[in-house]
Amino acid sequence: MDVKARDCVPNVQQSSEEDHMELKRGPWTVEEDFKLIDYIATHGEGRWNSLARCAGLNRSGKSCRLRWLNYLRPDVRRGNITLQEQLLILELHSRWGNRWSKIAQHLPGRTDNEIKNYWRTRVQKQAKQLKCDVNSKQFKDTMRYLWMPRLVERIQAATAASTTAVTAASTTTLTSVVGTGQTVSGDDRLGGAQVTSSSYTLENSSTTAASSDSFGTQVSPVSDFTDYYSSSNNISINNPNPNCLEATQDLSGNYYNHGLDFQSLEQNNPWLDTIDASNNLFNAEDFYFLQQQFNFTM
DNA sequence: AAGGGCACCAACCGCCTGTAA
DNA sequence: ATTACAGGCGGTTGGTGCCCT
């Protein structure tokens, strides 16, 4: 079906009447969602203003477009941001800044809005807690030389854990995700599949006793984004610029630890007691490292 | 149990750009 | 070349639910 919304010629009188009607705003109802889905299924997307009228939605074209792209589109990927996605977001943001849509293009199924929200609620929060600007070199270096390598370590750990549990050939498909302790639950609103993590957290995947999820979120041990990384000790990424992960090439973790024995440092450093490691981007050992590197004052 | 604070995220807003007339 | 409109984008807001006191 290739009939576009532009083919719909709205009734002039009706259009005129609607011009005087206040366009509806705020949360979408199930009925509105179905109207939009039905219309797009029949006529396709595009020409959002006329689409809104023709579909009988008292909404702005922009509102319809946003609702479709960010929520109703069948390939929208919902659920927790995986470790791989976190790493990719950090890397791409370091390259492109707040170019959310561009970043989103490299995370299939994720919307720019979702990535933007993730950045603001998680990453900026951490910068705030560290009392530094999210755009400062200090914080960027922190991300690049501490946080991202830590993520890589955790991805490695998670990959290793999942490899033992799953047969070799099935690491990237939804089927395999189900097989490794995650659940696929129906989206009760629209019937789309929604992947949720049932039990896996970074506490499980961490290589150190004190480590916790960088963000306090549940993450998936494997994901569709496994394709972005090889399982070898060198990351490869399907990206035009192979240098984009230059700071995280070595997955051994040793180099990035700079020889510090984090666990012993942590045990002997009362300063670390003040840090809430459970819900921070950085855990206690990371904070110690930060202090060493950037002379942070808390 | 209540309410205050907080995190998350859907949705809106305003500006910019591209394109067709 | 100009103008009007549609679409895209980044920033911001407001509602909701959860957690803590």
From TrEMBL:
Keywords: DNA-binding, Nucleus, Repeat, Transcription, Transcription regulation. It is found in: Nucleus. The keyword Repeat applies. Residues 20-72, 73-127 form the HTH myb-type domain. GO terms for molecular function: DNA-binding transcription factor activity; sequence-specific DNA binding. Residues 20-72, 73-123 form the Myb-like domain. It holds the Pfam family Myb_DNA-binding. Residues 1-21 are annotated as: Disordered. The keyword Zinc does not apply. One of its GO terms (cellular component) is nucleus. This is BOTRYTIS-SUSCEPTIBLE1, myb domain protein 108.
